[in-house]
Amino acid sequence: MIDHIGIGASDFDASRRFYDAALSALDFGMIMEVLSEQSGGYHGIGYGKDGKPFFWLGDDGPRGTGMHIAFSAASRSQVDAFYAAALGAGGKDNGAPGLRPHYHPNYYAAFVIDPDGLNVEAVCHTPG
Prior knowledge:
Number of strands: 9
Strand content: 25-35%
Helix content: 10-25%
């Protein structure tokens, strides 16, 4: 249903380091960069996979801390790697990797707070 989503960062470089590390643990990477000279002022990085950016980080300031973003993980070990990478890149713990059976029996997730206070999750829905 959603083609892509974008967030703004108050400290673009810190947020870029955070998302570079956290998303690479999920096998997502920078697909595209739009420079301010190209767009009339907006500088953004599109992260994704297979040539399709679906998550954009922009330099246009934070848009609110009430946002929650959940990224798909192919395995539970990717969730663990996401959590470690995100914490190592300046994220704050908001829920260590583990099962959340109140969602469903195989809901394995980790939650971190990004440099602007957004709640970011990696989730795997498959058993073991």
